[in-house]
Write a structure and sequence with these properties.
heterodimer; A: mainly alpha; ABC transporter involved in vitamin B12 uptake, BtuC; two-stranded antiparallel sheet; disordered N terminus; B: six-stranded mixed sheet; binds adenosine-5'-triphosphate; binds magnesium ion
Chain lengths: ~350, ~260
């Protein structure tokens, strides 16, 4: 080894960061700070300039759809990984949020941004109340129930011919402008993403994870597991209802296709591809899956075949998910430091 | 020992399908005392704790805590009143460091009201309070044991962690399900003073144990169970000399050893 190299050694990127206690990054230098913030900045800036570089109106619309799926996927990941409830309720949340916003806008004449806000809260309350009896259910049983609700509601609307029946509610107001639409969606996704990442590391987030790991110990600690599950389900369904409410104003129409299975399945696929438990991964997964699914639209029904192949390929080859893989690799980067 | 009953268990019965795990068990625990419960494997001791603390519904019977009926109330409400329990099969949060395990009970409404074991009604920073509680029950802060992952802690510490979870609530009574079992002689030797300290602190203790010798040292009164029924109740000497108890434990070396030792 030459003298020059003796004064420098290789060090992993996360070294200075890992040794310090969790959560509290007493960062030593701008350089270290940048290792943490650069990936975040790339995500935020990249997402914000996305609408500016889209070639056509059609692709601008795709961005909004990506955002709606991203809200669902983050909500799924939060429920599954931090609460232990596997939910197939994406369609349920979308449908409830969407129909409420449609009614508020169509019958009461509320402007879209107001009806979206109201239906996010009211929709989440309704979803939480309806799911309340199912909260003690675990694993596949909870998943089945959340899958049944949208089917049930869609058939109910069809059979009773309420809320516009099979025609749906037409002529809803759209967002005040397409820039507002896109940036509203993007800011919501980023807001929820970073909000949730913060939430899961607070003491409340710790309690939620404890409910997942060890619910008996939580009960023995004098805390109602149903209460904490309900709080988490409220947050998760609020994200879904927000997505649904935005969707009806984007398409200016609410119909029973809001209860379509896609809203339940695609977020899960996105989470698998992006990496579960990271909350960013599901967003990444949506950024990949939704455009692909749009591109494949040209192939008609064959689209499902391609789509499934891509999905299986991802699961077989990189079951940990892109984000988990990426994070690991990123932290393993080595740099030269002076000794 | 004031002699007023803090916990009254009346004719508690529990049947799992055809198996009667508890058959009309009644006893009282006085404020400030240590009551031992012993009995052969499968005699219903854990089931009794589960019924009292609301973790399973009892078939019939009544439980009064400080005179209030708590029969079949939800477990978290009973814990919130100050009646806590440890688990025979320890239930730490393995993925968290020891002190973070206490952040969860310290988040509970009762801990917020009481401020934790040593708190005077106001809860401080949860991490700090958690570490203080751990240090007081034997997690040496100097050797960083409170910061170790629960999954890497030996049984002795995990048993203490079970107790710590109860203490975080500032409990009035703790039902301990075999805190001595699985511990070495020296670990038990250090656990006994801790139990005595809890009693001096005014915490009432019910201790289900198989380690009779150690239990008899600390317990003021002992109840013996067999096949889901209460066999007898009395002081340690009365139990040790009882023919009925010898019969129930027939063949058990532990008891023979204790009996001869007595
Ligand atoms: N959930 C359950 N379902 C069916 N039977 C049960 C259940 N829990 C306990 N039992 C039965 O009830 C009886 C009492 O069990 P319990 O666990 O209370 O005994 P124990 O005194 O705590 O024994 P040990 O000293 O081994 O811990 C046993 O026969 C057991 O098989
Ligand atoms: Mg037992």
């Amino acid at each position: 080894m030459g003298t020059e190299q003796e004064q420098r050694r290789k060090e992993r990127l996360d070294r200075g960061i890992k040794v310090r206690s969790d959560g509290l990054y007493a960062l030593m230098s701008w350089r270290e700070l940048s290792y943490l913030t650069v990936p975040r900045m790339v995500l935020i800036v990249g997402f914000l300039i996305l609408p500016l570089i889209m070639p056509s109106m059609y692709w601008e619309r795709v961005i909004s759809i990506v955002c709606i799926y991203a809200l669902l996927a983050i909500s799924f990941d939060f429920m599954a990984h931090f609460l232990g409830l596997v939910s197939l309720g994406g369609a349920f949340f979308i449908g409830v949020g969407g129909y409420i916003s449609a009614v508020l806008n169509h019958s009461l004449g509320l402007p879209p941004l107001v009806s979206i806000a109201v239906s996010t809260i009211v929709g989440a309350l309704i979803c939480t109340l309806v799911l309340l009896p199912c909260l003690p259910l675990r694993g596949v049983y909870f998943a089945i129930v959340t899958l049944m609700y949208p089917l049930f509601l869609a058939r109910l609307i069809e059979a009773l011919n309420i809320l516009g029946g099979t025609d749906g509610i037409m002529g809803l107001d759209s967002f005040p402008g397409r820039w507002i639409e896109q940036y509203f969606m993007i800011l919501m996704v980023l807001g929820f993403l970073f909000g949730m990442r913060r939430l899961v590391n607070t003491d409340l987030g710790l309690v939620l994870r404890a409910v997942k790991d060890n619910d008996q110990a939580v009960r023995a600690s004098g805390m109602s597991i149903t209460f904490y599950k309900a709080i988490a389900v409220f947050i998760a369904s609020a994200m879904g209802c927000l997505g649904g409410a935005c969707l009806v104003h984007i398409y200016m129409w609410a119909g029973i296709s809001l209860f379509a299975l896609d809203f339940s399945i695609l977020p899960i696929a996105a989470t698998v591809i992006g990496g579960s438990g990271t909350l960013v991964g599901p967003l990444l997964g949506c950024l990949i899956l939704v455009p692909i699914s749009e591109l494949l639209r040209a192939f008609g029904t064959l689209r499902i075949v391609f789509y499934s192949l891509i999905l299986v390929g991802f699961i077989v080859l990189r079951s940990e998910g892109l984000m988990v893989y990426g994070q690991r690799k990123y932290h393993q980067f080595e740099r030269w430091v002076r000794v | 020992m004031s002699g007023t009953p803090i916990l009254q268990v009346k004719e508690v019965t529990k049947a799992f399908g055809g198996i009667v795990a508890l058959n009309r068990v009644s006893f009282e625990v006085n404020e400030g005392e240590i009551m031992g419960i012993i009995g052969p494997n499968g005699s219903g001791k854990t089931t009794l704790i589960n019924c009292i603390t609301g973790f399973i519904k009892m078939s019939s019977g009544k439980v009064l805590f400080k005179g209030r009926d708590i029969s079949n109330k939800p477990a978290h409400k009973i814990a919130d009143m100050g009646l806590t329990r440890t688990f025979q099969i320890m239930r730490p949060y393995y993925s968290l460091p020891a002190y973070k395990n206490l952040v969860i009970p310290l988040f509970s409404p009762r801990a917020r009201r009481t401020g934790g074991w040593r708190g005077g009604g106001k809860l401080g920073d949860r991490d700090t309070v958690g570490i203080d509680i751990l240090e007081e029950i034997g997690f040496e802060r100097d050797s960083f044991v409170p910061y170790k992952m629960a999954s890497s802690l030996p049984t002795g510490y995990l048993k203490r962690l079970e107790l710590a979870r109860c203490l975080a609530l500032k409990p009035e009574i703790i039902l301990c399900d075999e805190v001595f079992s699985g511990l070495s002689m020296s670990e038990i030797a250090s656990m006994v003073p801790l139990i005595e300290r809890l009693q001096m602190d005014g915490i009432t203790l019910v201790m289900v144990e198989h380690r009779l010798r150690e239990l008899f040292r600390v317990a003021n009164r002992v109840m013996v169970m067999n096949f889901g029924e209460k066999l007898m109740e009395g002081t340690a000497e009365e139990v040790m000399t009882s023919e009925k108890v010898k019969e129930a434990y027939f063949g058990s070396e532990e008891v023979e050893e204790v009996m001869t030792y007595a």
